[in-house]
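Revision sheet: structure tokens.
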Amino acid sequence: ELAVVVAQDQTVSSKSGKKSSCESEASTGTSGPDIINMMTVSGPQQVLLEVKLAEVSRNAARELEAGIGLGKLGRDFSGGLSATGAVTDSFTSKGLSAVLAGGVTGTIVDSPPDIPGLANAPGSLFLNLSDAANVFVNIDNFTMMLRFLEQERLGRILAEPRLVTQNGQEASFLAGGEYPYQVIEDNDVSIEFKEFGVGLKFTPIIGSDGLITLRVAPSVSDVTDLVETSVGVQPILSTRKLESTVHLRDGQTLALAGLLQDTLTEAVQKVPLLGDIPVLGALFRSTSYQQSKTDLLVAVTPHIIQPVTEGQLSFPGEFIKAPNRFEFYLEGRLEGRRNAEDPSQLSQHQFTKAAGLDGGGLEGDFGHMEQSN
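Predicted:
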């Protein structure tokens, strides 16, 4: 039976709620034996948290671009038609190597050097499938380009940190970086840093029955854009985070998911009126479609750990012995034989007194003792 004593009032309460003999004696004023606090006081408890962070991103993109040019091969020209002032400058084996934006004056395209006879041909067709379906049509003074692209990307970021913290203390993990930003205070400008990336914070509380109350807060953030402010250019963060409090036993695993981000972007550039013509309007417009999905899964497993004695530890390479000439040249050994009687081959930790306590705590008569009147 666990008894808790309050010295000022001579009150004794028991775990079972029944009136103890010490409480009866204190209430009647009779003297009794010395009251001893029989509580068990454990040593500092620590929690090891095994964390697995998996971020999966999937990107899909589709593009359709069209371009039309007029002029003569190898000669200067002036004039043309363009929605945003995009005129081809030269052809390469991979398509367009340069684009003149904002005007229609320049030099007409040259023939690809790797296709003999194309420069003098009155009409030609060039198809490139290196990174996309690029179709180039050259008919005398008329040049047309079509580009078809369909792309899918899959990426994964996996981190498996192991964090150790004391009972009731917070521990944190961050896989990312920091970016600087300006802060104005009392007309003084200072530089501060803000973290971004994949982060995790947790606080364990160990109960008397071994049940672990775990407060966990994962977060994902990244810089998505920049904005101009009165103090300069500041980044814009896209953040996903959650906080949860759960109860787990030693070795049980909690999985947290749902940090899903889905981004869809569509863009259309076209020549007015001509780009709206059914079917043929595709020759006068460029369209792009991009979709990005990112999902984050967090799995955490807490373990209650105890300190170990130094004699139970060994380090990598601690017992390696260099081979002698006979072992190296004749036997081909990269490591010499170890002699158990050689003191230099023994771990230095085996000669030190153990610093840890089995069980990680103290039991028995611990605390204060009061003399009854």
